[in-house]
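Example record used in the benchmark description.
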Amino acid sequence: MMLDRLEAVAQAQAGSSDGFETLVKVFSPFVLALANYYVGARDAPDVTQEIWLAVHRKLWQLEDGAKFVPWLRTLVFYQCLNFRKARARRQAREVYLSTDGWQGICECVAADSLSPDQLVLRKDLRLLLSELLDGMAGDYGLLLRLFYLQGFSYHEMVELTNLPLSTVKWRLYQGRKLLKASLAKLVEIQNMIL
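Model output (structure tokens):
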């Protein structure tokens, strides 16, 4: 069986899908057990898929096929470590609002009077707004932050970003629409929970 594993490693390194498939079949229980130990049963299957993608990408780096198992164990460890770090960062970024905070958002969205500077008045709303701005595509979040939170004028933003004035105004307009849509989704989710 060891010879088969060595051949499978060599074939997989040469680009053979059969060789890689053999490695996956033989070592999947091992990888799943390690991932289960490092990240827990709930996340282990997802992490295992990421691990096999990493194995496929990095298998060329393995110089000695006989050292595949220790190499795989190390790769599993670091992939799981990266997953745990990413999960911790995600959890740290999650924003928990008080009932009053959600009520304020509901009122802004329902009244169709979403004014970012009004949202900034409340600390919990500021945190949520900051998270939403950080998650916006392109430079929408940056422009909204500069204009509403930092108090930049249109002309200061033009100088800073080297964008035409019309583009800055358009992106602020589009950014406000995106922000409102994000807030509306959050309100809808919160209403489903409550």
